[in-house]
Design goal:
Shape: globular
CATH architecture of one domain: 3-Layer(aba) Sandwich
Oligomer: single chain
Largest sheet: 7 strands, mixed
CATH superfamily of one domain: NAD(P)-binding Rossmann-like Domain
Radius of gyration: 22 Å
Number of strands: 12
Mean pLDDT: 96
Number of helices: 15
CATH topology of one domain: Rossmann fold
Distance between the termini: 31 Å
Strand content: 15-25%
């Protein structure tokens, strides 16, 4: 199924079949599912900006606002040439489920611009970012829709957008009604950003790993081997915290290549080496030193099929496919990337008895910390990194427990179990509001 929105709707229908018997008023339940099958609002516009050479260029922009039943819409903004209406509609629906399974008071949204940001100068990128905020107009704000970084967008871009939003509030003479900084999350620290955000997604995934360890009886952590595809922000911090707790991270990779060290690698030394050499495949580093003889170079594809206990896709979408799902030897997969497993692969993994912790649960530490940033901005406070990360743990543990309990009760896979927890929360909020 290549259309992501069709895939999202098919998932929702499957969950609806599971949940329907629990509701006495079937008509209201069916109305809720119909409502949740499409975004509440889809905004589209051609944004025209002046380029550095004086010419003008137009870029197609989107914002899909799926549901605000549980709180303001929440979701990232991506700058990519493959952004499409169908993609943002699907991603906004998945954000509704992610915020619901994490039990934070948000709905779901997602936006994007069809652009290759590498082809724009910094000033052109800034003009485009500000134009996007103008396009959103009154459809963005701390109590309406709270965007965040996504593919190819950065804290700097959030700073420009936040500044443009503040200008709009001043023009409308409404800046005194709320803290404009709370309209965007993922901002730089000096502009209302949150401590701990850089490592929150990876650490949240390790909290999930710890919960799995308790339930699987993994008492000797050094015997539990982990392979991580992707050594960016999420992959590195997952590796760092897993290693710190005593798990054995044996393989990591970036977009070009990977390294396998059977005895376990040191994430910090590996990152340091990668920065120095530019090649992760040359970074066979244990806790003492880096020496290529300690390990061997592997490809991204080889990493996915290593004989390890836990596989962590932490990079791209759709990397686990119907072709390689048959070759995966890991007993557990923790999805730290968004959508790393295709629907066809998911069915194969389930049939093979491989447990998959879904992305909407495993990587929800990022949106949870966005929520903390929003709370700090609204309350005019600033929490320490320790405070932020201490608040993250109970949220992740609770989300995992609710999903695990559903899994044990129904016998369904963790993905379907997480979706049932999430969709039920959104439906119940719609019913309580009397919207259906």
């Amino acid at each position: 199924m290549n259309n992501p929105y069709e895939h999202a709707v098919t998932q929702l229908k499957l969950v609806a079949e599971k949940l329907r018997p629990q509701y006495e008023d079937k008509n209201r339940f069916d109305a809720a599912i119909t409502l949740l099958s499409k975004p509440t609002q889809l905004l589209t516009e051609n944004l025209t900006i002046i380029m550095d050479d004086g010419t003008t260029q137009s870029f197609e922009a989107y914002r899909s606002q799926h549901s605000n039943a549980r709180g303001p819409y929440k979701g990232g903004i991506r700058f990519h040439q493959d952004v499409s209406e169908e993609e943002v509609k699907a991603l906004s629906m998945w954000m509704s489920w992610k915020t619901a399974v994490a039990d934070i008071p948000y709905g779901g949204s997602k936006g994007g611009i069809i652009v290759d940001p590498k082809k724009l100068s910094t000033s052109e990128l800034q003009r485009l970012s500000r134009a996007y905020v103008r396009f959103l107009g009154t459809n963005v704000g701390p109590w309406i829709d709270v965007p965040a970084p996504d593919v190819n967008t950065t804290p700097e871009i959030m700073a420009w957008m936040s500044d443009e939003y503040e200008k709009m509030q001043e023009e409308n003479e409404t800046e005194h009604l709320q803290n404009p900084l709370a309209a965007f999350t993922g901002k730089p620290l000096d502009l209302g950003g949150s401590e701990g955000r850089a490592e929150a997604t990876g650490l949240g995934g390790v909290y999930v790993l710890e919960e799995l360890a308790k339930r699987n009886g993994w008492n000797r952590k050094k015997d539990i081997t982990i392979a991580i595809q992707g050594f960016g922000n999420v992959g590195y911090w997952f590796a760092h915290h897993a290693d710190k707790l005593g798990y054995r991270v044996v393989a990591v990779s970036d977009s070009k290549s990977g390294i396998y060290v059977e005895t376990g690698l040191d994430p910090a030394k590996t990152l340091e080496c990668k920065k120095a050499t530019g090649k992760i495949s040359e970074c066979a580093c244990d806790n003492k030193h880096c020496d290529i003889s300690l390990g061997k170079e592997i490809s991204n594809e080889e990493l996915l099929t290593l004989d390890v206990d836990v596989l962590v896709p932490a990079a791209l979408e759709n990397v686990i496919t119907a072709e390689n799902a048959k070759l995966i030897k890991a007993k557990t997969i923790i999805e730290m990337a968004n959508g790393p497993t295709t629907p066809e692969a998911d069915a194969i993994l389930e049939k093979r008895g491989i447990m998959v912790v879904p992305d909407i649960l495993a990587n929800s530490g990022g949106v949870s910390t966005s929520y903390f940033e929003w709370v700090q901005n609204l309350s005019g406070t600033h929490w320490s990194k320790t405070e932020v990360l201490d608040k993250l743990q109970p949220l992740m543990v609770s989300a995992f427990e609710k999903t695990w309990n559903m899994h044990e009760k129904t016998g369904d896979a963790l993905r379907l179990s997480a979706y049932q927890v999430a969709v039920k929360r959104v439906i119940d909020s719609l019913l309580l509001r009397g919207k259906i």
